[in-house]
Amino acid sequence: MDPKAPMTSEVVSTPSTNGCDKPFDVNVTYPVKVGDGMSAYIVYHVVFTGHQPPFDLRTFNVTRRFSDFLGLHAKLLNQYQCTGIIIPSAPDKNVLGRALIFVYSLGTTMVKMSKDTSLENEFIERRRIALERFLYRLLSHPVLRTDSNLREFLEHEGDLPRSVNTQLISGASAKKMFRNFGDVLGKITYKMEDPEEGFVDEYFDLKTEELESWERQLKRLHGALTSLVTSTQDLVSSKFAVSRAISQLANVEEHTGLAQALGRLADTEENVSQRYAMLADAELMYLADCARDTLGIIQACKDALDERWKAFRNWKSAENALRLKRELKVKLELAGRCDQRKSQGIDAELEELSVRVESEKNNFEKVTQVVKVELDRVDFTRFDDLKQAATQFLQITLQTQEKLLENWESYLLQAKTIN
C-alpha cells in the first residue's frame, strides 16, 4: 500500500445527517473523470434526501461538475449578499498543500501535481469533501435551503447551463481587490456613528474587532497545522523508507531467525507508516481544512458587514442629496430667482429625494437586522463545527494509536521468539 494514498473510507466530511432526526441528508460521492486530455473534467454524484419539511420526502441523485458548484455560489451571492445574508464561501479551485513539481491541466482547472500520482487522488478527495461541506452549510441555512437555484442544483436531472462567471477567477479577484480598496476609502468618509442622532455602532464595532482578531489567530493556526501535516507526511515517507531498507537487509541476512525478525520488523514499519498516513490525512481534512473553511466563513461575515456599510452609505448619500437640494431652493428663493414653475420642479425633486431617503433608511435597518441575526447564527454554529471536527480527529487519532500499539506489541512477541 502506498503510504501517501489519501484516506477515504474512514473520513467523514460533514456531521452525520443519517436518520429522520435531521431534515436532510446530502453526500457528494463517486468522482468520475470524463474525457481525455485538455477536455477532461471530473463529475461528482450528488445524493440528496429530504426527511422533513421544507424538503420533499424523496431522494435525488444527480451529477455535477465543479463549475456547477461555483455557478451556484455566484447565483446565491448575486441574489442574497446585498440583503445581508452570509453566503458560505465556495471551495477553492486549488486545495493541495504539498510541495508540487509540475502542472498539468484537468479540464478548465489547472491542477498542480507532483510526479506522485496519489496526489491526484488526494486532490479529488479533498475537493469532494469541500463540496460536500459547502452543500451542507447551504442546506443548513433557513433561507438558502429554500432557494430555487439550490433546489434546481440538487433535483434537476441532466446537465445545468454552464456558468460563464466561474472561468476568470483571477480577474474577479482583482476587481474585488480594487472594489475593497475603494470601500476602505469610502468608510473613512462615511463613518457609521452619529452620537447627535443617537446612532452608535457599538455592537458591530465589537463584532468587526472580534472577526479581525479571530482571523489573525486562525491564520496562525492554519499555518501551524499546515506545518504539522507536512511533518507527519515526512514521517510517513521516512517510515516507509525504513521499512524498505529493513526488508532489503532481511533478504541478505544469512541467519534465518534474524532474517525472519527483520522481515517482520519491515512489515511492522510499513503498517506503522500506513497508520501515520491516515493520521496525516486526518490532520489535513479535519484540522487544517477546518481552519481554512472557518477563514472562509470569516471572510463571508466581513462581506456581509460591507453590505451593511454600503446600505448605510446609500442612506447618507440620499440624505446629503436632499439637504443640498433644500439649500439650493432656499438660495434661489432668497435671490428671487425661483418662479412658480421652477419651484414646482424643485418640490417634485425634493419629494422624490425624501422617498429615496426613507427607502434607503428602511433598507439599512433591514440589512442591519439580517446581518445581526446572521452573525449570531455563525457564533452558534461555529462552535458545533469546531467541536465536530475536533471530535472526529480525536477518534481517528485514538484508533491510530491503538493500532500502532497493537502492531508493536505483536512484533515484540515475535521478536522474543528469536533464537
Automatic annotation (TrEMBL):
GO MF term (any one): phosphatidylinositol binding
InterPro entries linked: AH/BAR_dom_sf, PX_dom, PX_dom_sf, Vps5_C
UniProt GO BP: early endosome to Golgi transport
PX domain ranges (all copies): 22-160
Pfam families in the cross-refs: PX, Vps5
Family: Belongs to the sorting nexin family.
Protein name: PX domain-containing protein
